Amino acid sequence: MLTQPEDYLDTETFARIKAAADQQETPVLIVDTKTFSRQLDHLIECFPYAKTYYAVKANPEPEVLSILRDRGCNFDVASRYELDKVMALGVTADRFSYGNTIKKARDIQYFYEKGVRLYASDSEDDMRRIAENAPGSRVFVRILTEGSQTADWPLSRKFGCHVDMALELCVLARELGLQPYGISFHVGSQQRDIGAWDSAIAKVKWIFERLKEEHDIELKMCNLGGGFPANYISRTNPLETYAEEITRFLKDDFGDDLPEIILEPGRSLAGDSGVLVSEVIMVSRKNRTGLDRWVFTDIGKFGGFVETTDEAIKYPLYVEKSGETEEVIIAGPTCDSADILYEQYKYELPLSLASGDRLYWFTTGAYTTTYSAIEFNGFPPLKTICI
Ligand SMILES: *Cc1c(COP(=O)(O)O)cnc(C)c1O
Fold it and tell me: Residue 87 C-alpha to ligand 1 middle, in angstroms?
């Protein structure tokens, strides 16, 4: 079965996206701001009690950031460059968290001077640097979580610490004159197992209790991270189901008196709003009787499709031609043999597909432009048009 646009976007939206793409050379990412707004409304509806800190790295287009600004959202940023970009749109310092646990002293200083007072940490080394360069600030400690098996793009292992260390870091923060404010985690991006939040929230509850009982420290915030789904080929539950379940986990552990709850969505907000349009450069076989048909297109791993690494994310793909189909291998345009998008997972495309035909990649609004390389083989960075 070939993908149809209406499996992913309503007909009117796709028509608008296609009309915008028709004016452009490929590759180009078209971001539909209406869809983005709708995703944001839906998230807020699903989690009415939570504060949103958008993960800027998912898609930092000014049009997208402005929607979040106007809806009163907050921003989780990972570098001074992201901070500058959002502040340039008139967002005040009280609406940021510096969520990266890996930061230089002078970067912390920069954030502090700009007025940011909320920092993530997962190590003593970093905590001491925060205390020195952002004195008196609120800090939240990121813990390690399970769930990398069921997340399509895991964010585990590199970030977070064990719960015992999280306890120690909160105590240390107080000693250093910081305000131990809360606990955060990220269960892995595109997390398909909602249960991953259950065990993470239970850990947070345990830390809250131990700190209160043993150290008279009262944490105020629980940061549930990102991990909420976008609509790719691999199925997930709808966001409502995530919200119902996660709310139940929170109430089971904290009762009706919930701490401040923070969400850091990226993919689930930006993903569905983007359609990346590329063009077929060439269709070939390696041998006259070769069974594999290769489709080369002008978007590749280095042009923004980094998340096709290990075929982790499978974007829905639509072409206008129909008729008899065949399984293909899809590869990008650069002179690097790692630049193969899908070989294990077989997309079915029409036999009539030929050079110059356009490919419409759905759910590409998150983690594409921000991953696109500068100057590999001289290709320019991926262009975005917001409509
Ligand atoms: C990237 C990132 C997010 C966003 O995660 P999604 O799965 O895209 O929603 C949230 N929090 C932190 C700390 C991140 O690094």
Answer: 20
pLDDT digits (tens, 9 = 90+) for 220-253: 999 999 999 999 999 999 999 999 999 999 999 9
Q: How far is the CA of 371 from the centre of ligand 1 (A)?
A: 14
Residue 340 pLDDT greater than 80, yes or no: yes
Q: For residue 184, which atom of ligand 1 is closest to its CA?
A: 13
CA quadruple 54, 55, 58, 62: dihedral positive or negative?
positive
Residues listed for the chain: 387
Ligand 1 pocket member 60 (CB < 6 A)? no
191 CA: nearest ligand 1 atom = 7
1 pLDDT tier (thresholds 50, 70, 90): low
Q: Which tokens go with 246? A: 């996660």
Range list of β-strands (E), the chain: 28-31, 50-55, 74-77, 96-98, 118-121, 138-142, 151-153, 179-184, 189-191, 221-223, 260-263, 274-284, 293-297, 317-319, 325-331, 340-350, 358-362, 383-386
- Taken in order of first residue, the domains within the chain and their CATH numbers are 34-265 (3.20.20.10), 272-386 (2.40.37.10)
Q: Please tell me if the CB atom of residue 267 comes closer than 6 angstroms to any atom of ligand 1.
A: yes
Instruction: Check residue 36 and give its pLDDT.
Output: 98
Q: What is the pLDDT of residues 18-58, one digit of tens each?
A: 999 999 999 999 999 999 999 999 999 999 999 999 999 99
Residue nearest to atom 5 of ligand 1 (CA): 226
Q: How far is the CA of 153 from the centre of ligand 1 (A)?
A: 10
- CB-ligand 1 contact for 188 (6 Å cutoff): no
